[in-house]
Amino acid sequence: MSQPVLVLNSGSSSVKYRLVQPDTGESLVDGVVERVVDYRAALQQVFDAVSSVGVSTDDVMAVGHRVVHGGRQFYRPTLIDDALVAKLDELAPLAPLHNPPAVLGITEARALLPNVPHVAVFDTAFFHNLPAAAAEYAIDRDVAAQWHIRRYGFHGTSHQYVSEQAAQFLGLPLESVNQIVLHLGNGASASAIAGGRPIDTSMGMTPMEGLVMGTRSGNIDPGIIMYLSRTAGMSIEDIDVLLNRRSGVSGLGGATDFRELHKRMNEGDAAAQLAYDVYIHRLRKYIGGYLALLGGADVITFTAGVGENDAAVRRDALAGLLALGIELDEERNLSPNRGPRRISTDTSPVSVLVIPTNEELAIARACVDLCKVA
Ligand code: AMP
Question: Positions of the site: Transition state stabilizer (predicted)?
Fold first, then answer.
């Protein structure tokens, strides 16, 4: 059996970690260090957790770091050296909320574990080759080129992992399957994947585009931003906070967590109901759009916290689509089963699946592949 891989996701105020056995997918220990101010102290806590399950940090095969934005340049899992850290620093403006903490986490982890290979795995990687028609925004091309404005897409590790698992579940070669993957967590994104290759995804230049999320607005008319600036006198920072943290189902309905949202809806809370309705409406628009782009799908897969757990969201996202070949099996959809499963009827031309995502395992396996070659 190979050595375990430590996967780190260093965010703005937390460090998520998981020690993964890449062969079996077994998680040896995982957790979150919250309210991080000092990344070195946070990582020390992570290493203590690793030691507590009898694994010496010297025996870790690699440390895999999730990095949100790889820009145009980085899309393969990459062995981290000083030059890469410097380049990641340069990408900070593209993902100001996400990349700087990742760089801090990487820097401290390398200082603490200098003899273990550190690998960066990019959340944008899977979408690196989006067709130009999907990747480009219709704005002045010179401005776009100068400022690297294009659609990068995010949650790529999850979309790739889940689409591979979906093909495997169906017993079909990945190359032969047209898929829609709906990653519905606190952040949410959809992708259309033809034969293993993404042809569109809902997140864009930043993770703010697309679906309604827990606290992010997803798509809005960009004119709103100018209006808020000129007429409401809001600063760009205020608008950033508004659209990233005070919007989505939380901004509309007062709750980020879908369990709480449903509770309020059941109590007759009109704001919660509206938030849910707007969320479902947007989701259905993307599903319809992607069915058109793909010329029909073989499989639609739900994943992440909401997608894996919320049967009502799955039902409402796909209700009334028999004409498009989509028929859910109500009982299967409501089953408390946690593993990969089919929730469409046996006769539904489009298979609908629920597949738990596992970004940490995907990152761990990417580290193994890279270390094998290196
Ligand atoms: P993620 O970002 O993938 O960890 O997803 C987190 C979100 O999943 C939470 O904010 C909840 O909205 C949602 N979630 C988690 N568990 C459940 C559940 N049992 N039912 C409905 N939603 C859930």
Answer: 155, 216
Looking at the DSSP assignment, which residues form a beta bridge with residue 196? Answer: none
Spell out the SS3 assignment of 34-90. CCCCCHHHHHHHHHHHHHHCCCCHHHCCEEEEEECCCCCCCCCCEECCHHHHHHHHH
Q: Quick check: CB of 263 below 6 Å from ligand 1?
A: no
Q: Residues 139-192: pLDDT tens digits? A: 999 999 999 999 999 999 999 999 999 999 999 999 999 999 999 999 999 999
186 lines ligand 1 (CB under 6 A): yes
211-252: pLDDT as tens digits = 999 999 999 999 999 999 999 999 999 999 999 999 999 999
**In angstroms, what is the span from residue 223 Cα to ligand 1's centroid?**
31
**Atom number, ligand 1, closest to the C-alpha of residue 184:** 3
The answer to whether the 5-122 and 171-359 domains have the same CATH topology is yes
Instruction: Give the active site residue among 30, 58, 81, 123.
Output: 123
Class of domain 5-122: alpha beta
Domain 171-359 sits in CATH 3.30.420.40? yes
Q: Where along the chain do its domains lie?
A: 5-122, 171-359
**Does residue 207 surpass a pLDDT of 70?**
yes
Average pLDDT, integer, range 74-87 = 95
Give the helix ranges, DSSP H, for the chain: 39-52, 82-90, 99-112, 132-135, 141-146, 156-170, 223-230, 236-245, 248-253, 258-266, 270-294, 304-309, 311-318, 330-334, 359-373
